[in-house]
Amino acid sequence: MNLPELCANYRDENGNALVVPDIIVHRRGPDGPNVVVLELKKTTNPEPRECDIHRLHAFRQQLHYSVGTLIECETRSGREPDITISEWFA
């Protein structure tokens, strides 16, 4: 999957965009299974939400994770702390 340039959170030695999730649940080794990939996003993070969604899709496509989830954490001043599951891809 081609990750939009804006959404690359890491790069390899050749400058290619890499997908590095916040949390993964899997069994080590090539046989897996790869179960869940999570992206966590604070509401104060200015990066577009779509980038998190692109990264989840890329990780699921490339490494065959069963579920991808975007979790948003309310961190804005004056608001009640909260956690919301914004996207769930299964």
- Cα-based radius of gyration, to the nearest Å: 14 Å
Number of H/I helices? 1
Order of helices and strands: EEEEHEE
**Helix-strand makeup class:** alpha+beta
- The strand count comes to 6
Cα-to-Cα separation, first versus last residue: 17 Å
Largest sheet: 4 strands, mixed
State the low-pLDDT regions, or none: none
- Portion of residues in helices? 10-25%
Strands side by side in the biggest sheet: 3-4-5-6
Can you describe this structure?
By secondary structure, the protein is of the alpha+beta class. The chain contains 1 helix and 6 strands, in the order E-E-E-E-H-E-E. The protein has one helix at residues 49-63; strands at residues 10-11, 17-18, 23-26, 34-42, 67-74, 82-89. Strands 3-4-5-6 form a 4-stranded mixed sheet, with helices on one face. Strands 1-2 form a two-stranded antiparallel sheet. The radius of gyration is 14 Å and the shape is globular. The two termini are 17 Å apart.
Explain the layout of strands and helices.
Blueprint lengths: L9 E2 L5 E2 L4 E4 L7 E9 L6 H15 L3 E8 L7 E8 L1
In short:
This protein has one domain.
Salient structural properties:
90 residues, alpha+beta, 37% strand
